[in-house]
Amino acid sequence: MEARHASREDLDLLALSPGAIVLVTRAIDIDPAGRPVLYGESRFAADRVDLFIDTGASGPSADGA
User: Fold this and answer.
1) Range of the domain at 9
2) Count of other CB atoms within 10 angstroms of residue 47
3) Contact at 8 Å (CB) between 20 and 6?
4) What pLDDT shows up at residue 17?
C-alpha cells in the first residue's frame, strides 16, 4: 500500500480536489501452481477510509488456547 497525490484521473473519478491524497493497493491472485491469474490495483480517497490492521497478536493463538 502506498499514499500518493491523486492523478488527474483520480481527481475526476473520485470527485477529489487538487492536492488530494489517495491510498493505492495492488494485489496478485495466483492459481494452485503459483501462476498469476489476476492483477488488481485499487485507489481510495485517503480522507474517506479508515485502515485497520489485525496482526492477531492479542487474539487467540493458532492452537485455540
Assistant:
1) 2-48
2) 10
3) yes
4) 97
N-terminal to C-terminal alpha carbon distance within the chain = 32
Residue 37 C-alpha cell reads as 491469474
- The residue among 23, 26, 27 whose CA lies nearest residue 3 is 23
Strand partners, 28: 39
**What phi and psi values does residue 57 have, to the nearest 5 degrees?**
-60, -35
Task: Work out the number of other CB atoms within 10 angstroms of the CB of residue 11.
Answer: 17
| pLDDT value of position 53 | 83
pLDDT tens digits for range 8-43 = 999 999 999 999 999 999 999 999 999 999 999 999
- Look up residue 47 and give its three cell numbers: 480522507
Number of structural domains (the chain) is: 1
